[in-house]
């Protein structure tokens, strides 16, 4: 490069430095960050947002968006920090308040979560999400009645949103004093709105109507066909099905990476279909292609519900098992139940046809249980509960207070995962004290790291006290397996009657109470009969294993006989 060219280049550089440099506007940067975020490029989005904040440190929306990025990454503490920075700049930022409430809930800081959501509700009372999220937090805090009110508000504000309806419907099982007619009316309303249009638009199945041929039975398990308490009941039925009578297909929404050793046992005992990623219409089409004759929904209204697929009539016969409550009549044809959980006088409150079996629920442990400890010597009696805190209703606390008053010197041991939270522990101590139980007689235990550790707690308990109006299912079976007698109060609802079915199946009718006074008297009788308790410590596990409750073979065959009866009706229709 000669001297003349060098001078020319220097002049051009000098001129360039004097010209204004084009800049990217705040809006353009925000659009770029959002584009990265929507495409899942979180690192690039974060870099753009941080650059934006460097030039515009007061941008509250960018702070909120950074919180969402941290939340997606699973960094809840980092997300919460950004949401709080957004609120510090703009205290009435509703979305930041909602997201901070949800994040605090996930962190187990339920009081702070309720405060954040209450602030969001005050700012935007017509936002259904806030009412629903507040209801979820209140359920975790054991405030079922308040949760029910908030779920009702969410449904009223957005009546076409299925999640709000499911939460509203299911919470009724935790609240005492609601008439069965009111529940039926609520379920019918939901069913007419969300399910009936799908059912009316469905086409009939053209399966072979031979009445006695081998049936193809499908079980939809959602996300439950794995290490889940429901597998205690379902795995024996899958593993003991009569292959000469039925061909079993299992439909699971678990992703393959989520499957575990229990899932592999389901796979081994059935034709396996992974339905993860399929929408309800695609799921229904798959069932039709499989030529399923009887489709059993094991999920109902809980998480991963497929009732919208059931309503599309993918099989000639659809049924709900195990029974929880009526589904409003348009989702499935049948509810399979026994006379214990659904007495015949309650059938008018069911929208579905009831198909009866001798004992609808069978139970077997799918992991080894610890040995039963030698019975404690006579003396201080320990009552216990291992149910979810959402089931420990005011009615339950009142019952337990009366039991402890009737048995001087006795104690109450309550175990629940959320009791690791010190705030929740104190709240329940206060509630139990308000119900009339001296704090010195209460022991609260939180989460334990393994099933064996959890079951070992039963070795410290003399008598298990069931909850009401929503009673125990798995916890009742676990207590009996660990040699501990149970006292249950028979309720009106299906989910308040499983304890009676289990106790009668193992021959322990003395634990079945029909009134609150009866509940207290039976708990007192167990406390005063140390010899009987010691005998059960030694013999109850073997007795239970030999009972119908743990007979998966007869349970599978009883169900298959029910399927055949339903099939014959369809063939003749």
Description:
- The chain is of the alpha/beta class.
- It has 3 domains: 26-172, Alpha Horseshoe (Serine Threonine Protein Phosphatase 5, Tetratricopeptide repeat); 213-362 and 555-572, 3-Layer(aba) Sandwich (Rossmann fold); 382-550, Glycogen Phosphorylase B (Rossmann fold).
- Helices cover 50% and strands 10% of the residues.
- The protein has 23 helices and 13 strands.
- The strands form 2 sheets. The protein has a 7-stranded parallel sheet with strand order 3-2-1-4-5-6-7, covered by helices on one side. A 6-stranded parallel sheet has the order 10-9-8-11-12-13, sandwiched between helices.
- Helix 19 links the parallel strand 11 and strand 12.
- It is globular.
- The model is unreliable at 16-23 (pLDDT under 50).
Strand order of the largest sheet: 3-2-1-4-5-6-7
Q: Based on CA inertia axes, which overall geometry fits?
A: globular
* CATH class assignment of the largest domain: Alpha Beta
Query: Can you count the beta strands?
Result: 13
Give the termini separation. 98 Å
Q: Indicate how many domains the architecture comprises.
A: 3
Low-confidence parts: 16-23
Q: What is the fold named in CATH at topology level of the largest domain?
A: Rossmann fold
